[in-house]
Write a structure and sequence with these properties.
- A hairpin with a 6-residue loop joins β6 (about 200-210) and β7 (about 220-230).
- The chain has two domains: about 1-140, NAD(P)-binding Rossmann-like Domain (Rossmann fold); about 175-275, no CATH class.
- The protein contains eight helices and nine strands.
- Helix content is about 30%, strand content about 25%.
- With about 280 residues, it is α/β, with parallel strands linked by helices.
């Protein structure tokens, strides 16, 4: 109850200069004026961290070179000075290690989705949270959207009847343009750190393409067949590329699962058959 009589002190790992989502978390945390931003390790580049810290008016002594140093140093501070929780806004594959470090240092965690990079890491993290009895919050922010909450109420109340099938799509054209060529960090780590497992065989077929009369938009529709371990899968997607007056060279790369994962704003895996 004592913590409710003051603002919470927040720290952050990630979210430095050139980052994609860190500033959004800082802005959201400030909306209700119940959080003070106190410390951070904003980048692997310490100069970036120092610059970000200065722009956020942080004490230079609480701008750390590594997240390990941050967790250890903050845990040693008096209770009325240390951060209450840390926000993790780093690439997906680093979430587990950072969350584990702060939880074991006695600091609550708010982590950007996804929870971890692998199921094994998630299961281990659940055990750590249970052992430390600290808060681990995962920011699935769309659960708070009015339309999502309304849909939940419709299904929970039984008004929608028996649910037999659910189709969910998240349409986004952000990575249709090759931002990685311009140094966009989000695009780069998506390509480098989160490829799908390599298939045994992989081929792609562009089934159709068309452009609007204005020549400013291109609609791509494609189907990809991937064979892995005697199981054939299919990926079907369509996406708008508003940056090109003609069909871009992307289809030539669609046979790569890495390209598919990175550049298709809407795609789905469909089980076809098992031989």
């Amino acid at each position: 109850m004592d913590s409710w009589k003051r603002k919470l002190r927040m720290g952050m790992v990630g979210g430095g200069q050139g980052a994609f989502i860190g500033w959004v978390h800082r802005m959201a945390a400030a909306l209700d004026q119940q959080v003070d931003f106190a410390a951070g390790c904003f980048s692997r580049d310490f100069e970036n961290t120092k610059t970000t810290g200065a722009q956020l008016y942080l004490d230079p002594a609480r701008c750390y070179q590594t997240y390990q140093e941050m967790a250890e140093s903050e845990a040693k501070l008096p209770e009325d000075q240390r951060i209450d929780f840390v926000s993790i806004v780093t690439p997906n594959e680093s979430h587990f290690a950072i969350a584990k470090t702060f939880l074991e240092a006695g600091i609550h965690v708010v982590c950007d989705k996804p929870m971890t990079y692998t199921l094994a890491e998630a299961e281990e993290l659940v055990k750590i949270v249970g052992k430390t009895r600290l808060v681990f919050a995962l920011t699935h922010n769309y659960t708070g959207h009015p339309l999502v909450r309304h849909a939940r109420q419709l299904f929970a109340s039984g008004e929608m009847g028996t649910v037999r099938k659910v189709i969910v799509e998240y349409l986004q054209d952000f990575l249709m343009y090759p931002h990685e060529k311009e140094g966009q960090k989000q695009a780069i780590w998506l390509m480098v750190s989160t490829p799908l497992p390599p298939p045994v065989r992989c081929s792609s077929t562009l089934t159709s393409s068309s452009s609007s009369r204005s020549g400013k938009k291109v609609l791509l529709s494609a189907q990809i067949r991937v064979t892995r371990s005697s199981v054939i899968y299919s990926i079907r997607f369509s996406a708008w590329d508003p940056t090109s007056p003609r069909v871009p060279p992307r289809p030539a790369c669609l046979g790569s699962t890495r390209q598919t994962a990175c550049f298709c704003p809407s795609f789905s895996w469909g089980y076809i058959k098992k031989s």
